[in-house]
Amino acid sequence: MENPKVQEILEKQLLTVAKAVEEKLDEEIAAIDRLDDDDLEALRERRLQQMKKMAEKRNRWISLGHGDYSEIQAEKDFFSVVKASDRVVCHFYRENWPCKVMDKHMSILAKKHIETRFVKIHAEKSPFLAERLKIVVLPTLALIKNAKVDDYVVGFDELGGTDEFSTEELEERLAKAQVIFLEGESSVKSGAETRRSVRQGTNPDSSDSE
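Below the sequence we write its predicted structure tokens.
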């Protein structure tokens, strides 16, 4: 049986919290009630301007190739891509199974996070970049902000050490590096699609991780 005094203390604490929440709600309702027509119109105008700016930004992103997961065909094009967008995730790959796993996740995230450019480049056909950026293990994701490589995701070590990691795990890692936004108007939610493993339905053709 619980101590009556402990129970009484808990009840008082709960009442205090409930009262504080109620007072906060009352303050917010009162603030809304105090708004006159001019205030409401100013709020609407501010919101419209925010929506307009976001629409312009999204259109610019799409014009730069955001929203699609595409391949950079030549090394020289890498530099123009990273200079054009504030945030770029570049997958250095080769034709192996681990890189195909990464491709699946990158394709999903490219559509969801149009605030970031998602691209891939063949590491073996890009020796200058691979050496300059010290790319050894494949797949490697170069996380680029403001035209500078800020971080790397090398292989699957940070994703559970397995090719069965979920898109959500990769998404959280990229968000931690601040190369994508987890929430907000700049990203498009795709529900459970981001949580599934991409291994199902595809047969590995190589276990090479380099």
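Strands lie at 69-71, 87-93, 117-122, 140-145, 148-154.
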